[in-house]
Amino acid sequence: MRTPLAPDMFDPVCPSELSPIRFGDKWAGLVIRCLEGGPRRYSELRVPLRRVSPKALTASLRSLERTGLVARTVRTAPVRAVEYALTPLGHSMIAPMNAACAWASEHWDELLDAREGLGTR
């Protein structure tokens, strides 16, 4: 039995679109973070990604699968289940994401100011 994903894994006050560095579509980075610890079912991903519409989450998963970052596995026994997991290529995204997150954290106030139109022009 794997540890469930925390519902508050992502801070709702921290918009993912604030970072100028994006990995895939708007939600791909968050999906990759959810899969970092191992395979997950769609329903498990919905817990921390509750603000993502089901349609957008499905589109993000499909896009990540097309680009080779995520593998989708259908299990038929003992019950039918679909799991998503990072591929080796997907796991290679973790280090660049950590660097981007560290940079965004360091420049958080500047990013907020710029977003609110308070940055220098």
From TrEMBL:
Kindly give the InterPro entries that the UniProt entry links to this protein.
HTH_HxlR, WH-like_DNA-bd_sf, WH_DNA-bd_sf
Q: Has keyword Phosphoprotein?
A: no
The answer, when asked if Transcription regulation is one of the entry's keywords, is yes
Recorded protein name is HTH hxlR-type domain-containing protein
Q: List residues of the HTH hxlR-type domain.
A: 14-112
What's in the keyword line of the UniProt record? DNA-binding, Transcription, Transcription regulation
- SUPFAM superfamilies per record: Winged helix' DNA-binding domain
PANTHER family from the entry?
TRANSCRIPTIONAL REGULATOR, MARR FAMILY, TRANSCRIPTIONAL REGULATORY PROTEIN
GO MF terms, alphabetically ordered: DNA binding
Name the source's superkingdom: Bacteria
**One Pfam family of this chain:** HxlR
